[in-house]
Design brief:
This protein has one domain. 86% of the residues lie in helices and 4% in strands. The chain has a two-stranded antiparallel sheet with strand order 1-2.
Amino acid sequence: MIFCLGKLSVEVFVRKTYLYLAIVAVLAASVLAQSDSDYQSWMKSTPATMGSLNKNIAAKDGAATAADAQKLEATFKQVEAFWKSVVAQTVR
């Protein structure tokens, strides 16, 4: 049995709803996949930067220590933005 909602049947309404949800899911997945590769590269760069930071602290090289700290800060800001984006997409 098909009920009518004005000129739109329930069956057509459900099909259109599934189509819209599928499109949104594909778009979200493509954005997440692109960002996921960025996220992976940020996280892989962190141990090397931390190692350099620790060596520069031990060597009492203030300029190099500050540069490493700034690099880590920038990386963590990117990671934070990534996770905020993921949470925002999940909540929708």
